[in-house]
Protein backbone atom coordinates (compact mmCIF):
# COMPACT_ATOMS: atom_id res chain seq x y z
CA UNK A 1 0.00 0.00 0.00
CA UNK A 2 1.30 3.40 -0.94
CA UNK A 3 1.90 5.71 2.01
CA UNK A 4 0.43 8.75 0.23
CA UNK A 5 -2.93 10.29 1.10
CA UNK A 6 -5.26 10.57 -1.91
CA UNK A 7 -6.99 13.64 -0.44
CA UNK A 8 -4.19 15.80 1.00
CA UNK A 9 -1.16 14.35 -0.79
CA UNK A 10 0.68 13.77 2.48
CA UNK A 11 3.70 11.50 2.01
CA UNK A 12 6.49 10.27 4.30
CA UNK A 13 8.94 12.88 5.53
CA UNK A 14 12.57 12.13 6.28
CA UNK A 15 14.86 13.35 9.03
CA UNK A 16 17.33 12.23 11.66
CA UNK A 17 16.92 10.03 14.70
CA UNK A 18 19.17 11.61 17.31
CA UNK A 19 20.43 9.33 20.08
CA UNK A 20 21.39 10.35 23.60
CA UNK A 21 25.04 10.58 22.51
CA UNK A 22 23.81 12.81 19.65
CA UNK A 23 24.65 10.35 16.86
CA UNK A 24 22.37 10.85 13.88
CA UNK A 25 20.85 8.16 11.69
CA UNK A 26 18.23 8.66 8.98
CA UNK A 27 14.63 7.92 9.84
CA UNK A 28 11.23 8.19 8.24
CA UNK A 29 8.12 9.98 9.53
CA UNK A 30 5.07 8.17 8.12
CA UNK A 31 1.66 9.86 7.96
CA UNK A 32 -1.24 8.03 9.63
CA UNK A 33 -2.65 6.36 6.49
CA UNK A 34 -5.86 4.32 6.59
CA UNK A 35 -7.81 2.41 3.92
CA UNK A 36 -11.39 3.64 4.24
CA UNK A 37 -14.61 2.92 2.39
CA UNK A 38 -16.99 5.80 1.68
CA UNK A 39 -20.53 5.63 0.27
CA UNK A 40 -20.90 7.73 -2.88
CA UNK A 41 -24.67 8.47 -3.18
CA UNK A 42 -24.47 9.94 -6.70
CA UNK A 43 -23.03 6.68 -8.10
CA UNK A 44 -24.89 4.42 -5.65
CA UNK A 45 -21.67 2.57 -4.72
CA UNK A 46 -18.77 2.52 -2.28
CA UNK A 47 -15.34 3.93 -3.07
CA UNK A 48 -12.21 2.82 -1.24
CA UNK A 49 -9.73 5.60 -0.52
CA UNK A 50 -6.25 5.65 1.00
CA UNK A 51 -6.51 8.65 3.31
CA UNK A 52 -4.64 10.17 6.21
CA UNK A 53 -6.53 11.06 9.36
CA UNK A 54 -6.25 14.72 8.30
CA UNK A 55 -7.81 13.68 4.97
CA UNK A 56 -10.75 12.16 6.86
CA UNK A 57 -11.36 15.53 8.53
CA UNK A 58 -11.25 17.22 5.11
CA UNK A 59 -13.86 14.76 3.81
CA UNK A 60 -16.07 15.45 6.85
CA UNK A 61 -15.82 19.21 6.26
CA UNK A 62 -16.15 19.37 2.46
CA UNK A 63 -18.15 16.24 1.71
CA UNK A 64 -17.22 13.05 -0.12
CA UNK A 65 -18.77 14.13 -3.45
CA UNK A 66 -16.59 17.25 -3.72
CA UNK A 67 -13.43 15.45 -2.58
CA UNK A 68 -13.91 12.63 -5.11
CA UNK A 69 -14.50 15.22 -7.86
CA UNK A 70 -11.20 16.91 -6.94
CA UNK A 71 -9.33 13.58 -6.96
CA UNK A 72 -10.74 12.75 -10.41
CA UNK A 73 -9.85 16.24 -11.68
CA UNK A 74 -6.20 15.47 -10.81
CA UNK A 75 -6.45 12.36 -12.99
CA UNK A 76 -6.46 9.71 -10.25
CA UNK A 77 -8.78 6.76 -10.62
CA UNK A 78 -11.32 6.26 -7.79
UniProtKB/TrEMBL annotation:
Single GO molecular function: structural constituent of ribosome
Record's keyword terms, sorted: Ribonucleoprotein, Ribosomal protein
InterPro entries registered for this protein in UniProt: Ribosomal_bL28, Ribosomal_bL28/bL31-like_sf, Ribosomal_bL28_bact-type, Ribosomal_bL28_sf
GO CC, one annotated term: ribonucleoprotein complex
Extent of the signal sequence: none
GO BP, sorted A to Z: translation
Protein's UniProt keywords contain Protease: no
Entry keyword Lyase: no
Stated family: Belongs to the bacterial ribosomal protein bL28 family.
Protein's name according to its UniProt entry: Large ribosomal subunit protein bL28
Naturally occurring in which organism (per UniProt): Streptomonospora nanhaiensis
Lineage: Bacteria, Bacillati, Actinomycetota, Actinomycetes, Streptosporangiales
